Amino acid sequence: MIGRLTGTATQEDDGNVVVDVNGVGYELIVPLGTLGRAKTDAEGRATLFVHTHVREDIFSLFGFATEGDRIAFRTLIGVSSVGPKMAISVLSALPAHELGRAIARKELGKLTSITGVGKKTAERLLLELKDKVPLLEGAAGVGAARSIASGAASAPITVAASSTGELLARALVTMGYRQNEADRAVEQLRDKVGDTPLAELLKEALAILSK
Predict the structure, then answer these.
(1) What is the topology classification, in CATH, of domain 68-139?
(2) pTM tops 0.70
(3) How do residues 172-185 score in pLDDT, each as one tens digit?
């Protein structure tokens, strides 16, 4: 089982991340924006928390910027008929704390707006996660709590410390756009940021930048 990797991380064309650890490249399936939020050291090496998925002849690695993100992922795959790739899709659209809020408010429409999530699956998420809202909302602060406990001088308290707009900008930069282009797209979408799922914002941002 691989629990964590630290190395030089690069984003692939398919959205996956490859982490080079002492000459060995580990390919990780990650939620949108993971590499931009991952902690890096003075040498630029990123640390990603890993969920090792083994099933029959399948061996896949899923990577996360924080331990809290991994907790949210493991909570999602505990839901009936929700597999790892769907869980990644959900977390790409809704960070853990936003997902917890959507579940608490029974926002069916927000869940069905996620690629690959139909009405039945959304209803199942609402039903099976309703008692796990505190876990989802608290997951965002797990990494920070551990950093503070280990004596770190400063750390992001929750994923919310990076606004949806910042996550959107990072995702665009990761996809190859310049920072000023990403900032321009975010500025044009400022009235929607905070109320619209990240995946939908990304689609609109790409449409803006393609003009």
Answers:
(1) DNA polymerase; domain 1 (1.10.150)
(2) no
(3) 775 667 888 888 88
